[in-house]
Amino acid sequence: MNNAVTGFSKLSKEEKINWIANEYFSTPTEAIALLKNYWNSDKKTQQLHDEFIENTITNFYIPLGIAPNFLINGQYSTIPMAIEESSVVAAASKTAKFWSTRGGFKATVINTEKIGQVHFIYNGDVSKLNLFFAQTKAVFFTETESITKNMQKRGGGILDIVLNDKTDLLPNYFQLHATFETKDSMGANFINSCLEQFAKTLKEEASTYELFSEKEKDIHVVMSILSNYVPNCLVRAEVSCPIEELTEKHIQHPKEFAEKFVQAVQIAEVEPYRAVTHNKGIMNGIDAVVLATGNDFRAVEAGIHAYASRNGKYSSLSHAKIENGIFTFWLEIPLALGTIGGLTTLHPLVKFSLEMLKKPSAKELMQIVAVAGLAQNFAALRSLTTTGIQEGHMKMHLNNIINQFEATDKERVLIRKHFKHHAVSHNAVVDFIENLRK
Ligand code: MEV
């Protein structure tokens, strides 16, 4: 049994590490050495990372890869991807190259509206509440002026506030539903600050509203928070070309390929089990770029999957069609991203990634991220409907198996040479290594 610890957050980093090593590890000195091995040798850089969160003991590496040759709306980009899955960056690069000679990717931002809500309980006459809101709506804007001033200078701010009656879902439940434009920032802090002020204004104004009874004056605010579901913060990415141009090494019969590809997408449109895996492949591309550019991938994940269920059944985020001999493949996803504020000005590798992307606006980053998702989905479906996924996947995974067995340099050369012409499977590699070592 391990012991509980009190005042842990007050301990120094060294003390925390010593405690954890002694409490949980059979060889504490080795555990400590491992943690320290991952510290950055530059003290300032390490301190920066230490202070992102509480109780930092070391850094957790994930590779940052790059996928070049993405032709998006006529401009080339090299896309940064932070991801641990072996085949993702290779698939992105391959797909980027493929579409760069077929017109590239087209991406458009459809809308950029963000959402936040004040959830509250009102016990009284609904028509009086409606009248109260109509008469005090302007106050919600004036009371938040100090918060919105800078955002307004950048062309953003509060777009609208509406009162929603939700009593059909929960007794006495109402909400202020506000929409925002946050320009190049993701806007979480801005939105939440506005909402908390709305909540204060709501309570104050209600408490002195003459038409309300004492009970009606006593509005209970349950919480004020942005929504990560942003169905009106939408971006579309698309590729298309005449069917015959799809020809390449693995696509000898482009018409057959295009038809099978469309069928694969249709299956994901109607079958939730497949849709989840299909969309997971899309998220391989999206999360990797979102993470590399310092954005909140949990928010993006939550919002996108909710969007995939918007019609009451979980479905594919992407779609494909063949019309008049033209193959078109596209997706439409909600993405609330920022290119200023938050980690974007703090994390050195995030700054690097954004500079590599030529310091994009939030709208440009939405397009890049959507394209990365579409590219990843194209790569997965191309493999699935032709060679199968394992061929490419296992080729990329070979390095992981080699590392697991701590192969020597000489062994690595022999293993790679052999598996250039043989199917890679975990057992096949293990057998080969064992034979080599006999
Ligand atoms: C693996 O990370 C992603 C895939 O399963 C996606 C798909 O099946 O479309 C290959």
- Spatial shape: globular
CATH topology of the largest domain: 3-hydroxy-3-methylglutaryl-coenzyme A Reductase, Chain A, domain 2
Residues in β-strands, percent? 15-25%
Helix amount: 40-55%
Total count of helical runs of at least 4 residues: 16
* Structural class assignment: alpha+beta
* Name of the CATH superfamily of the largest domain: 3-hydroxy-3-methylglutaryl-coenzyme A Reductase, Chain A, domain 2
Instruction: Supply the CATH class of the largest domain.
Output: Alpha Beta
List each distinct ligand once.
(R)-mevalonate
Number of domains: 4
Beta-strand segment tally? 10
CATH architecture title of the largest domain? Alpha-Beta Complex
N-to-C order of helices and strands: HHHEEHEEHHEEHHEEHHHEEHHHHH
Main sheet properties: 4 strands, antiparallel
The spatial strand order of the largest sheet comes to 3-8-10-9
Low-confidence stretches: none
